[in-house]
Amino acid sequence: MKLIPLYHQVIIEKDLDEKKSNGGIILTGTAASKDINKGTIIAVGEGRLLPDGSLRPLGIKEGDRVIFSRYSEANKILDDGRTFIVATDSDIICKIQE
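User: That's the sequence. What structure does it adopt?
Assistant: Structure tokens below.
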């Protein structure tokens, strides 16, 4: 399945939720959901549509690692064991530089 976002929408592949406690126990579900949402941008729309009809390019690109708002998970797509989030550019909190 190929996802193509429109305008200021982005597609984020969410990192796996597997977390470990300090003692090495693997946490899942609500025990693991206390962390910030991280992922990789896999597709970007053409830009935000401005009132004059022009498009303002987004400040992110495919391949960028980002932290995104927990509320953007309402638009979740599951495919072949991977989790994708359809979010707007304003749902992205920051880029991660590694």
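The chain is about 0% helix and 45% strand.
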